[in-house]
Amino acid sequence: MISIIGSGRVGSTIAFLCGSSGLDNILLVNRDGKKAYGIALDISNAIPQTSSISITGTSDYTKIAGSDVIIIAVSASMHVVSRTELLHEHASLIREISSKIKQHAPDSKILVVTNPVDVLTYVIQKHEDLPPKNVLGIASSLDSSRFRYILARELKTNQSEISGALVMGEHDDSMVPIFSNARFGSKKVSDLLTGENMDRIKSDVRNYWKSLRDSHWYSVFGIAKNTFAIAEAIIKNHDLETSASVLLEGQYGLTDVCIGVPLIVNNDGIKQIRTINLEKAEAEALYISSNRVKENIHKVFALGT
């Protein structure tokens, strides 16, 4: 069973993708149980005729018992200017949810979508002392998708021609697009772009969400599809190479912080954190990015939010 906590735009879209593909039974949990019920009622009509899955909506957390995957897509407010603005409010909310998960579904794989995702992935894991392999923050795979799209646009090609487009670090202004890993066909994109080009692309990737906001839209479909892909790998138990925010314990020379890194995920959760070669400037930028996340983690724990 897949439990989705939060039935806003993102949560309901993830539920639709899971339901319309017949992936697994779905439970929508929302503070407004009637809203969750209504969304479940609607998505029920998108379930394939050949599928035996069900979808239900509730406000009752006890029903998450037995969940294989729990996706956290809650939001305390729709009025966001910065991903760190709602840091303390969301940290408090995440702690409440993590306690309920530990009580009712302690062995589930937890996918955190709520921002700031790196800090909250750390909070939920540390608050209930959950196994590191079971908790992932979904963001860097989305940032990597945006990086791939922008590279394709810059190089005047389609996205299928771009491989290895990876973004690491914080899901915010210090994220690190890894140009050294990206390829256009067999060529390194860094050999095809000027320093000015790469600086502009880096800025475009970091500010992508602001472009959505300024266009009076939200990040919905991209994050939902990336979350669905990871949930599918867990449910179907196939190895998926992706990237996510996870607890580092020495990888890339970093410890006690959650940031986006490349990894392999399957039914066991995080099968392997992949180590790739970084150029010196990229490694330094990743270190700075991890410190940004640590600063926000310290703020949360210092105030006891």
UniProtKB/TrEMBL annotation:
Residues of the active site:
H171 (proton acceptor)
Its name, as the record gives it, is Lactate/malate dehydrogenase
Describe the location of the Lactate/malate dehydrogenase C-terminal domain by residue ranges: 141-302
MF (Gene Ontology)? L-lactate dehydrogenase (NAD+) activity
Q: Which GO terms describe its biological process?
A: lactate metabolic process; tricarboxylic acid cycle
Q: Which UniProt keywords apply?
A: NAD, Oxidoreductase, Tricarboxylic acid cycle
Residues given in the record as NAD(+) binding sites: G6, S7, G8, R9, V10, G11, V113, T114, N115
A Pfam family of this chain = Ldh_1_N
* Bilayer-crossing regions: none
InterPro entries from the UniProt entry: L-lactate/malate_DH, Lactate/malate_DH_C, Lactate/malate_DH_N, Lactate_DH/Glyco_Ohase_4_C, NAD(P)-bd_dom_sf
- Cite the Lactate/malate dehydrogenase N-terminal domain residue spans from the record: 2-137
Q: Which family does it belong to?
A: Belongs to the LDH/MDH superfamily.
Q: Does the keyword Transcription regulation apply?
A: no
Q: Give the organism, scientific name.
A: Candidatus Nitrosotenuis uzonensis
- State the PANTHER family in the record: L-2-HYDROXYCARBOXYLATE DEHYDROGENASE (NAD(P)(+)), L-LACTATE DEHYDROGENASE
